[in-house]
């Protein structure tokens, strides 16, 4: 699964620096009473990009999103959305909030129709529900949906006004793995249609899978940003290769291996030259041995660990 | 609801930027939610209906056979004035009526003359040999004349009954109404209470929608805040219309309750009362963080008013402290105005004070509510 990441990332074109900005946030500050939530945050999102805000709970992700959505006032700084103020841009933004946000007694179709009209649009509930794989739920009331279905309906709601910019706050939290993958597919689909996507997540894999630009936020500040590759490369972290082999065939001396360790019948090697090491392994152990090799590239978890000084998955619990 | 104008593959298409599109959509959605919400129907329609049906039934007189002799044009008025449940009417001539009473075929007879315009006189014929029954028959007859007065309120002067004193100009008095026709006294008060309960229940729903984040999601759309407020008002008026239709409709079928002679001032009072108590609902929503707190606050507002504001009994007969307490209850003015217009023959001018008080309270409450109301769930 990890290996496929590299392929998914390769298909995402790098952001064209000449594309106009969809979101331009400079030196944003916002406090709740004496408690600072955002402390001088800069964020730029170019049109057509998928950008992920990655950070633990309480990092200021949601506050930043809500300021961009025009839901919250801010203390100081500049916030421009689609070339105008957040409140002016509302009609052109699709929004998914963290909370329920549905009328329990309305059906899916009625909910989509209502929200479409609140934006001055006529939504096509059947098509919107098909997008989140809920075609058969047209006439089901929100109160009868499972948690995951509610979340998917909220994601479908973001498109009821044909938005240029879609803002998703933890779109896959609480979804089962299958629904999560479907949601990713949908987000990629939005991207292919030329829409800009800004999402928050505390799932490393989600940011790696989807985003061409990742912004790591902690304690109200951007602590690192760039494409996942750039972030990982910038960290200078090594990939991990795990291969089943006897302790006696000492792999410590393999060229390119930085660190090595033998445990429970497997060697774990850390290297920045995966291809060379794999080739050497094949030569030494025979092609047969390569059938049981796993390669784990350095990932954003490592980046996060280094930039925020703690594990994302721990802090997100 | 499924859109036919958007082609199958397309997700949505623009309709326009006018405020009417979100206003109509949100109002209809609110009405649907109302209709599907069992609690709303039970507490705002069914409970008041039971109050009318049960209390109306408890204090209803058993039917008495009455012979009525009256000029043809007055007969329909009589039919309306004398509730079918209390009186069994037989239309006849004055001579036959007299004979029926003397032979005990009828409990008493009403002989109505309206030849001398504009005065109407009613002669009550009783059989003087029915010594024991005549006391109660006289009471029935007086009730019948009171009912007739009520039906003829828009005519002036009122009906003069031979054994019945004429009521004061400007309408019946509430005591007489409560004594003679309790259901006509009760129904406007219960309707007023139902509207109050409806306004407060709108507040409860607002708290639920806010805590779930639904209001927030609506704030994230370009629809302005006034659209949200207007949709709440409009859907509340739909609820009030349903309350009126059910309470007065069934009340009419069972007990002959009507809108009274002045439907337009009545509508005005209902409108002002609805807005006043919807504002109270908004205030409850603004002041309570959780739905349970809102339920408690609503009950603290509605229950004392139900018992103190003279819904079930005329305040003129109540102890002085209760009367004083009722002065600060907005429901007192709402129920007085409704009763005045529906059953006591008051004019718009005579209920203007009540309307102004309701309006004042409503505006004051709305200002406080608007200053404290939040779209954000608590904790944000």
List keywords for this structure.
heterodimer, A: 317 residues, alpha/beta, six-stranded mixed beta sheet, four-stranded antiparallel beta sheet, 28% strand, disordered N terminus, B: 380 residues, 6 strands, 7% strand
Outline the fold blueprint.
The complex is a heterodimer of chains A (317) and B (380).
Chain A (H helix, E strand, L loop, with lengths): L1 H10 L9 E12 L2 E12 L3 E5 L6 H8 L7 E6 L4 H4 L3 E4 L11 H11 L2 E3 L1 H7 L15 H11 L7 E5 L7 H16 L3 E6 L2 H7 L2 E6 L2 E6 L1 H8 L3 E6 L12 E7 L2 E6 L2 H12 L7 E4 L3 H9 L3 H5 L1
Helix pairs in contact in A: 4-5, 9-11
Chain B lengths: L11 E3 L5 H17 L1 H21 L5 E6 L5 H7 L5 E5 L2 H9 L5 E6 L7 E5 L5 H21 L8 E2 L12 H7 L1 H31 L1 H6 L5 H31 L7 H25 L3 H18 L11 H8 L2 H13 L5 H25 L8
Parallel strand pairs in B: 2-3, 2-4, 5-6
Antiparallel strand pairs in B: 4-5
Helix pairs in contact in B: 1-9, 2-7, 2-9, 3-5, 5-6, 6-7, 7-9, 7-10, 7-11, 7-13, 9-10, 10-11, 10-13, 10-14, 13-14
């Amino acid at each position: 699964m990890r290996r496929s990441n590299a392929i998914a990332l390769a298909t995402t074109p790098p952001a064209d620096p000449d594309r106009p900005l969809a979101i331009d946030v400079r030196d944003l500050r916002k406090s709740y009473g004496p408690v600072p939530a955002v402390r001088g945050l800069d964020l730029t999102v170019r049109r057509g990009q998928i950008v992920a805000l990655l950070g633990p709970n309480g990092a200021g992700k949601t506050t930043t999103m809500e300021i961009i959505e025009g839901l919250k006032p801010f203390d100081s700084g500049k916030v421009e959305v689609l070339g105008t103020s957040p409140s002016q841009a509302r009609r052109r933004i699709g929004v998914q909030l963290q909370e329920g946000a549905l009328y329990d007694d309305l059906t899916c179709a009625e909910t989509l129709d209502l929200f479409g009209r609140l934006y001055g649009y006529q939504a096509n509930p059947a098509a919107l529900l098909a997008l989140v794989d809920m075609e058969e739920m047209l006439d089901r009331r929100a109160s009868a949906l499972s948690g995951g279905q509610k979340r998917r309906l909220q994601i479908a709601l973001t498109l009821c006004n044909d938005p240029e910019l879609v803002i998703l706050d933890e779109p896959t939290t609480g979804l089962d793995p299958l629904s999560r993958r479907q949601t990713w597919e949908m987000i990629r689909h939005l991207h292919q249609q030329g829409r800009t996507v800004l999402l928050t997540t505390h799932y490393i894999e989600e940011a790696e899978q989807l985003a061409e630009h990742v912004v790591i936020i902690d304690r109200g500040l951007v602590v690192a940003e760039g494409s996942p590759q750039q972030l990982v490369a910038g960290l200078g972290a090594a990939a991990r290769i795990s291969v089943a082999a006897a302790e006696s065939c000492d792999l410590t001396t393999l060229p390119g291996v930085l660190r090595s360790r033998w445990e429970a019948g497997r060697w774990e090697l850390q290297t920045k030259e995966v291809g060379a090491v794999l080739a050497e392994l094949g030569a030494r152990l025979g092609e047969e041995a390569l059938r049981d090799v796993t390669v784990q590239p350095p990932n954003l978890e490592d980046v996060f660990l280094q930039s925020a000084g703690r594990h994302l998955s721990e802090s997100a619990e | 609801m499924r859109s036919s104008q958007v082609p199958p593959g397309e997700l949505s298409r623009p309709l326009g930027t006018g405020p009417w599109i979100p206003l109509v959509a949100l109002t209809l959605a609110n009405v649907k939610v109302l209709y599907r919400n069992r609690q709303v129907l039970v507490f705002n329609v069914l409970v008041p209906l039971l109050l009318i049906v049960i209390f109306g039934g408890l204090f209803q007189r058993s039917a008495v056979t009455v012979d009525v002799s009256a000029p043809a044009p007055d007969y329909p008025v009589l039919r309306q004035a004398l509730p079918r449940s209390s009186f069994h009417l037989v239309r006849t001539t004055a001579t036959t009526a007299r004979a029926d009473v003397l032979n005990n075929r009828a409990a008493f007879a009403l002989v109505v003359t309206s030849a001398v315009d504009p005065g109407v006189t009613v002669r009550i014929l009783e059989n003087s040999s029915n010594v024991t029954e005549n006391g109660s028959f006289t009471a029935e007859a007086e009730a019948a004349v009171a009912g007739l007065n009520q039906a003829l309120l828009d005519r002036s002067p009122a009906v003069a009954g031979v054994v019945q004193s004429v009521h004061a100009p400007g309408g019946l008095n509430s005591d007489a109404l409560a004594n003679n026709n309790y259901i006509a006294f009760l129904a406007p008060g219960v309707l007023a209470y139902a509207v109050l309960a409806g306004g407060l229940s709108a507040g409860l729903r607002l708290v639920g929608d806010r805590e779930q984040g639904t209001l927030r999601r609506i704030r994230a759309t370009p629809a302005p805040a006034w659209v949200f407020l207007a949709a709440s008002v409009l859907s509340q008026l739909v609820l009030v219309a349903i309350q009126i239709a059910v309470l007065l409709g069934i009340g009419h079928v069972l007990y002959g309750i009507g809108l009274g002679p002045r439907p337009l001032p009545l509508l005005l009072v209902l409108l002002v009362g609805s807005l006043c108590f919807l504002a109270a609902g908004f205030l409850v929503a603004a002041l309570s963080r959780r739905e349970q707190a809102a339920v408690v606050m609503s009950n603290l507002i509605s229950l004392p008013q139900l018992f103190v504001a003279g819904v079930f009994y005329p305040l003129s007969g109540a102890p002085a402290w209760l009367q004083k307490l009722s002065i600060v209850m907005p429901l007192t003015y709402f129920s007085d105005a409704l009763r005045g217009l529906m059953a006591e023959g008051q004019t718009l001018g005579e209920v203007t004070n009540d309307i102004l008080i309701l309006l004042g309270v409503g505006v004051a409450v709305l200002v406080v509510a608007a200053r404290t109301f939040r779209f954000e769930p608590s904790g944000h």
